[in-house]
Design goal:
With about 150 residues, the protein is α+β, with helices and mostly antiparallel strands. The chain has 5 helices and 9 strands.
Length: about 150
């Protein structure tokens, strides 16, 4: 089993598609902090609450020069419908579907037994270095205030 990415490591770059079919690359956000907020699967209650909380607080993150990206292994069509159902207005939710969980594996948070990522927040600084990592129990909703406090 791979260990979760360590503090001080350079974040692996990636290119994924968001819920709108737009290509998103981590390196496009150089000069900003980036929060990678991993949720195991769309359409589950804790994942729903996690993404809604991030979307509601998008302006607060932006005020701290931080881009928030939600990620899971769900395919892009699923993410698209889910984002509309949740009425997400600002949050980009990315599909780590093909190859399944490749980015989650690169960050050490893929769960082969579940075929999905674990729940985690990984904060990357303006130059691409990991500055905060927290893994959560599957049924635990990450505290958005804790995350904002790390900025």
């Amino acid at each position: 089993m791979t260990e979760i990415i360590q503090l001080g490591a350079m974040a692996p770059d990636f290119t994924l598609v968001d819920q709108n079919g737009e290509v998103v690359t981590l390196s496009q956000f150089k000069g900003k902090k980036v929060l990678l907020s991993w949720h195991p699967l769309a359409w589950t209650s804790v994942c729903t609450d996690q993404m809604r909380s991030l979307d509601r607080n998008a302006d607060r993150f932006a005020g701290k020069n931080t881009v928030v990206l939600g990620l899971s292994v769900d395919p892009e069509p699923c993410k698209s419908v889910w984002a509309r159902a949740l009425c997400l207005k600002q949050l980009k939710i990315l599909s780590d579907f093909n190859p399944l969980g490749a980015v989650a594996r690169a960050y050490g948070i893929f769960s082969p037994e579940h075929g999905a990522s674990k729940r985690a927040n990984i904060l990357i600084n303006e130059v691409g270095m990991v500055i905060w990592v927290k893994k959560y129990e599957i049924r635990t909703l990450p505290d958005v205030e804790e995350v904002l406090g790390k900025l």
